[in-house]
Specification:
With 321 residues, this protein is α+β, with helices and mostly antiparallel strands. It has four helices and 21 strands. The radius of gyration is 18 Å and the shape is globular. The structure holds 3-(2-carboxyethyl)benzoic acid.
Length: 321
């Protein structure tokens, strides 16, 4: 039996009404900021990145295995035999670095204690991500704090690091982190077209500890991917070219992932597309729709991206078949 037995994901429109069952739901992310009524035992990451295209949407992670709900410190979780979904939402009262380090320490304490030490995928949302305070951009403060927590828990800073994304949420939102963790190790995947983020040169600040993708059983998680070749942003100011370059990076990651496990295909993935300027949406869609096909699951969200010059970032998840 595959270790990730029965992990499934779906983007569900709130207009579709309340799902018939919640007993098989590992966790949920919502993207509108609207407080929708879900059973209290479901961990819900309330991500404040407005939905640009289509109705209000939830991302739902399900599994076929029996589920148990709980809370560890401030981490709300559900777990199956193999997998754990968790989320933590913290105010920045102690400052962004302290809040980030606290969130990550709680995540690592929870996954270690509960026995799912392998974090395959982690999502990070923080407001004003490109704003500089105390002489350092907030994304860079986040990177420094994430590293501190990894070091405190004696985790790797390169190589075996989670697939991830880090986006700017609406001003005034809390820091929201959610993750999928496993009893068994995931396989990290890097992009041959890009310098690994954990090896970026010092000009980008404290090194970001994430992998470009990870494979967990027959699931591929593609991290937030942008118009970066080598370590540099390319096509500055050109959203069409940035979108195409991002697709080329995703294709390169797919080819790389298929060397570890075959059967991943662009048109079988589900996508989140983060758009810095909402006026760019039609141009981005004009590039993606022909490439991804008419049946693709694509969720377009309004969010700042962690480099000032990036206009679009795309993440994806898919299953080998
Ligand atoms: C990049 O490739 C774009 O800090 O966790 C993408 C995915 C990015 C994850 C993170 C940042 C992160 O560098 C930014």
């Amino acid at each position: 039996m595959a270790l990730e037995a029965g992990l499934q994901f779906d983007y569900v429109s709130l207009a579709a009404g309340t799902p018939a069952r919640w007993d098989d739901v590992l966790g949920v992310a919502t993207f509108s900021g609207s407080a929708s009524a879900l059973p209290a035992t479901i961990p819900v990451a309330h991500v404040h990145t407005p939905v640009l295209a289509g109705a209000d949407v939830r991302e739902i992670w399900r599994t076929t295995q029996p589920i148990e709900s709980g809370q560890f410190s401030q981490v709300h979780y559900r777990r199956s035999q193999d997998l754990m979904f968790g989320c933590v939402s913290l105010t920045e009262a102690p400052g962004l670095p302290a809040a980030t380090e606290a969130a990550y320490r709680e995540v690592f304490a929870a996954v270690n204690e509960l026995g799912y030490p392998h974090v395959a995928r982690i999502w990070n949302y923080l407001p004003q991500i490109n704003v500089e305070t105390d002489g350092l951009e907030r994304y860079r403060q986040f990177n420094s704090a994430r590293r501190n927590a990894l070091i405190a828990y004696q985790r790797d800073l390169t190589g075996n690091v989670p697939a991830a994304c880090a986006l700017g949420s609406v001003t005034g939102s809390p820091l929201v982190v959610h993750f999928l963790a496993s009893r068994k190790a995931a396989t990290p995947v890097e992009n041959p077209r890009q310098v690994s983020a954990y090896d970026y040169p010092a000009q980008y600040g404290p090194k970001p500890a994430f992998s470009r993708a990870s494979i967990l059983g027959d699931i591929l998680f593609i991290s937030g991917t942008a118009s970066i070749v080598g370590h540099e942003t390319i096509h500055v100011g050109d959203v069409v070219a940035q979108t195409r370059e991002t697709l080329a990076n995703i294709e390169a990651l797919l080819a790389e992932a298929n060397r570890f496990k075959s059967g991943f295909e662009l048109r079988k993935l589900a996508f989140k597309v983060y758009v810095r300027n909402s006026a760019d949406l039609p141009l981005i869609q004009s590039q993606l729709e022909p490439a991804l096909g008419p049946k693709a699951q694509v969720l377009y969200l309004h969010a700042d991206i962690c480099r000032q010059d990036l206009l679009v970032e795309i993440e994806a998840v898919g299953r080998a078949h």
